[in-house]
Design brief:
With 191 residues, the protein is an alpha+beta fold. It contains 5 helices and 6 strands. 31% of the residues lie in helices and 32% in strands. The longest helix is centred in the N-terminal third of the chain and has 18 residues.
Length: 191
Amino acid sequence: MAGCSALPDPCETPEDDCPSQEESDNSNVVREFIQRVWNYHWTAKDDEALLAAHAKGNRSYVPDSIRQALDELRSPTTVRHRRDRAGRPVRSSGPDDYATCVGAVHEVVRNLRLTILDLVADGDRVVAHVAVEGVNQRLDGRTDLPGAFGALPPTGQPFRIETTTSYRIHDGRIAEDWLVFEPPHRRAQAA
């Protein structure tokens, strides 16, 4: 406030702005998670394996590198919080939950890339504001099934959205996360 400097005591006491070692370590867990899980470069062989696994009913297939990153960076009991397409809260967990999610996203988005725009840590919490970019196109090429964000048919067009996820880190692993995301079709309806 402009008038604070006129008071004998400052209105605010400056605090050290340096993150603690815990906050720095927790931020690194989130950075590494985004890089190794979401920004993994899927090969043509990986794509074929995903399609084959899905055809056999295995919805939790991901390449070994992603599986290893998930094993190292998140707890087997990690709880994910988000909202479904209708806006209802959804909570999921389990050893294959993240792998299923990653595979489902890869199935409908080509050239996925997450860029961290801002990362804020406070104790065991890390908030990541990211830009998500890719192409709304199904891996199997089908146009009779939804693409990214439920688009039917998949648009085949590049997209860029921003999302925020809050992570709780425990013992150097993601224990819980909350995705704050409003699909583009819901934003358009609100406008």
